């Protein structure tokens, strides 16, 4: 989309809900258009996502849109985008107000090639921490992909914000589990879909997010996803049936540590029972083998004590030889 088309958007210049003055269009997705808008009273800039008019009369689309807002506000975590409002205006436009982020999403970063191992692992760990918080709240994302991982900067390093919980599964009694996607046919994105979703299973749990994060980390390390295909059906089949090549075979120059490769491959196991049980366990495995605490805290002091004792033994003065005495008469 060229700059002229962005400027001609009909909502630019409008005020949503009487409070959010739209400045410019900053993104377009299957479930909405995202604008930068300024609060008329506070003067603060926000990102405002508006449900397209063509979808506002579709109950499934509205449900997905509202689910995104509810899921994000349920989880209070620094690595999940903050939603501050959800409302409609006088034109019956449904919109979500979120914090305005400065940076790029992971998909845009991957266009420039694979990431250094340390950076890729750090991004995966931050994303995993956010998703663990979601899982603890009973929410499964189900559509994790690079477009939904936004990278800002904090203290000179990439700082993750997870976006778009539109097709998340909320484990609450008052919510059903409709199949809500951009195509209204498949839950999730084929490049990153878990085998259970690819097979059409209606019941999935948090381990489907573990699989998706494993696929994303694989792509960050190698520069390409583990599976490709000419159409969605080929991708679904491969995710459901084929084993991925080890990342080190795809990118021999990356010097991927064995423990990172092992963690990625375990996260991508076909059977959810063979994956990491939690995101925390996945993140812990990415840290690699650690020296036991007792060895770390006691090893050096004991070695030092041994050296001191040895030196003291060598330097200790020898006892003087006793003088010979004549036996008494």
Given helix and strand content, the structural type is alpha+beta
Integer-rounded radius of gyration: 28 Å
Shape: globular
- Strand percentage lies at 15-25%
SSE run: HEEEEHEEEHHEEEEHHHHHHH
Helix tally equals: 11
Describe the strand arrangement of the main beta sheet, using strand numbers: 1-2-3-4-6-5
Helix content: 25-40%
Strand count, sense and barrel status of the largest sheet are:
6 strands, antiparallel
Description:
By secondary structure, the protein is of the alpha+beta class. The chain is 37% helix and 17% strand. It has helices at residues 3-7, 59-74, 106-110, 117-136, 195-198, 207-222, 232-241, 247-250, 258-267, 279-287, 293-315, and strands spanning 15-16, 20-29, 32-39, 45-50, 83-88, 94-99, 104-105, 139-140, 149-154, 157-162, 169-170. Strands 1-2-3-4-6-5 form a 6-stranded antiparallel beta sheet, covered by helices on one side. The chain is globular, with a radius of gyration of 28 Å.
